[in-house]
């Protein structure tokens, strides 16, 4: 995973060895929580393989789905930088393997490596952009746009993979990420397929037209990807 992470490639070799030595691996079963509300952040998380969902729960017990993180995604940087406790929860939607870079390691890197600091700042900027879009989606957007945004976020996470645009993502998982029924999600995906945006197949889908996917998601592609891995 680290071999395709730009900030890691920018580190001197001795720093790469330190990072590799200090990474912690976390394995999650389907339905298992990585953490819950109130747990103090130990560091920055990256998804090696699998899919996890970022969500928060209201006083009435209802859950608001905020985003999904798949292979290549990094998350939790804002809470990690603040040394704070999580105000949200992350749960595995399928068996997943993650790594965690301890906060102490991150702090040393952002104090001494400009590429790492820029990567963190870029992630923070993208996260704010996503949260604004997520709020808009939950309040104003229709199901088709919400589903398109969920697919686009996962497609952007594959940009540095060996199979960019090919998503190991089921329709049930997309529905869970969007907080909509599976039937409504399937109908939205079918419309995207008819428009030539994507092709579904067993175990996932392939993005055929990223420009049109951006348009369907009502996102300006010139502003950059929704999430950086």
Automatic annotation (TrEMBL):
Task: Give the Pfam families listed for this entry.
Answer: cNMP_binding (PF00027), HTH_Crp_2 (PF13545)
Domain HTH crp-type residues, every copy:
141-211
Which PROSITE patterns has this protein been placed in?
Answer: CNMP_BINDING_3, HTH_CRP_2
Does the record's keyword annotation contain Coiled coil?
Answer: no
Any one cellular-component term (Gene Ontology): cytosol
What residue stretches are annotated with the Cyclic nucleotide-binding domain?
7-127
User: Which UniProt keywords are present, listed alphabetically?
Assistant: DNA-binding, Transcription, Transcription regulation
Q: A GO molecular-function term, please?
A: DNA-binding transcription factor activity
Report the domain of life of the source organism.
Bacteria
SMART domains recorded for this chain? HTH_CRP
Q: Which InterPro entries match?
A: cNMP-bd_dom, cNMP-bd_dom_sf, Env_Response_Regulators, HTH_CRP, RmlC-like_jellyroll, WH-like_DNA-bd_sf, WH_DNA-bd_sf
Return the Gene3D superfamilies for the record: Jelly Rolls, Winged helix-like DNA-binding domain superfamily/Winged helix DNA-binding domain
Record's SUPFAM superfamilies?
cAMP-binding domain-like, Winged helix' DNA-binding domain
- Please name the CDD domains in this protein's record: CAP_ED
Q: What is this protein called?
A: Cyclic nucleotide-binding regulatory protein
- Which source organism? Bordetella trematum
């Amino acid at each position: 995973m680290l071999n395709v992470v730009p900030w890691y490639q920018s580190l001197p070799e001795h720093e790469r060895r330190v990072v590799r030595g200090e990474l912690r691996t976390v394995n999650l079963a389907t339905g298992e929580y990585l953490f819950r509300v109130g747990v103090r952040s130990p560091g920055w998380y990256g998804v090696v393989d699998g899919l996890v969902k970022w969500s928060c729960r209201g006083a009435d017990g209802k859950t608001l789905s905020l985003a999904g993180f798949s292979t290549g995604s990094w998350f939790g940087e804002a809470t990690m930088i603040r040394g704070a406790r999580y105000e949200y929860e992350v749960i595995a939607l399928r068996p997943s393997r993650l790594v965690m870079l301890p906060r102490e390691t991150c702090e040393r890197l952002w104090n001494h490596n400009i590429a790492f600091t820029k990567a963190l700042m870029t992630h923070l900027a993208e996260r704010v952009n996503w949260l604004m879009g997520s709020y808009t989606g939950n309040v104003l957007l229709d199901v088709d746009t919400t589903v398109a945004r969920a697919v686009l976020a996962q497609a952007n996470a594959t940009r540095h993979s060996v199979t960019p645009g090919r998503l190991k993502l089921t329709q049930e998982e997309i529905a869970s990420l969007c907080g909509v029924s599976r039937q409504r999600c399937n109908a939205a995906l079918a419309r995207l397929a008819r428009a030539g945006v994507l092709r579904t197949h067993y175990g996932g889908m392939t993005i055929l037209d990223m420009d049109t996917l951006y348009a369907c998601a009502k996102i300006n592609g010139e502003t950059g990807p929704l999430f950086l891995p």
